[in-house]
Amino acid sequence: MPVPESVSSIIRVELADADLRQGTQADDLAALEAFYENRPGSLWITDMGLSARGQQALFEIEKAGDWGLDAAAFDLPSAGALPSGPDDQVIAEIKLNLAILKYARFARGGRSNPAALGGKVFQTPPVRDPNTVLTEIAAAEAPGAYLRSLQPQHVQFARLRRALLVARDGDAAGKLSTEAKRIIMNMERWRWMPEDLSRVYVWSNTPAFMLYVVKDGATIYADKTQVGTIGYATPVLSADMTTVVFNPEWIAPPTVLRENLAPALRKKDYTILKKSGFTVSYQGRPVDPTKIDWRRVNILDYTFTQRPGPHSNVGKVKFLLPNRHAFVLHDTWPARRKYFQRSMRAIGHDCVRMEKPNLFAKVILAEGNGWPESKVEDLWENSVNDRVTLDTEIPVYSTYFTAVADESNKITTYPDLYGLDHQLARALFGDADGFPMPTSGVKRPAVSKAARWRPPSNDVTRSLGFAGN
Questions:
Q1: What CATH architecture does domain 200-249+308-397+442-464 belong to?
Q2: How far, in Å, CA of 248 to CA of 384, rounded?
């Protein structure tokens, strides 16, 4: 027998209770208020307790641990209890709805705020609107299947989940191993990714020092990368590649201006500009740097441009993906190439440098513009600061995955370069046992030797210290 219509009226009253509202997402409460404003009866409860559909939803939430979530985080009604009256029915109805909305939010990465975890993580999880969730699950034939559908559909997420199930089988009851926790944290990072990565996209994974081009789910290009040191961490973000620039100029980024150029110029040491081939401009007009009192001006108001050439800090090509963090992909200068043979390649500023950018450019312009390789080769050899706009923009995902699963669900792990595993473990599990901070610490050094920018030079010691953007 269905619950009397009066129950939905009681639900609306209960939703206004201050105790209930405390500690509950405001968006979830607002969605429930709107939902029951127009609904005459309950969604999940009958006078005999949970309906079959309600039990489906409840049982699926109880299996949250199989998806890398914590089942204990959801306050669920009893599956088989008989309600003694409308008040009990209302409490069970509200509890299950709030658990459903919380599950939907957590499935889409909403149990933590990536930007608040420390580090340069600039992602917004694709959390489903609670109004949409209620509408969709109310119409779903199988509420349990609907809740499962909210989990990420990425291939890597599915592989990691299968690996988690294996890892959990070997864990002591109620206790997660370090291996299981690492898998869960990386599943969480996939929750932060866009739902649709696009047919063709670039995936740069900072801890692996690797970059890939993926097309229709298959990797069509892979290359080694150099990334930022802990003091100049490569950011985690998504942006669309719009432009390829061959034999580009290099504009010194703010970190280089503040930490390298400004101290020298304030001492009237202009040799750094000559060695680097910098020209200086102010609001688009050339200026003579020797005529400026650098102790009195803001160096960030000036533009320092390095001319194209074989020793340019960005090499022979850069790939632009407009974003507010000035993050780009690019070539590197000759003296830095030897470091691609090292296993540890966190040696520069935050942008990503690749070993074979000429091949990458061929792939990008074949996919983005339909170009033949010969056209790219001509620009590579003969152009000067030539900009090519992509006809089809290509998404770039700069990521931080410390665990990656292959086709057989075997896990490969990578070092926690910036301490982001440490921070995420504390957020998800309450402690960071098994995930220590990197020994160099997390605070940005004033100017670390490993990250210090220097003018181009053939001197090995100086080239190791280069950290150009």
A1: Beta Barrel (2.40)
A2: 7
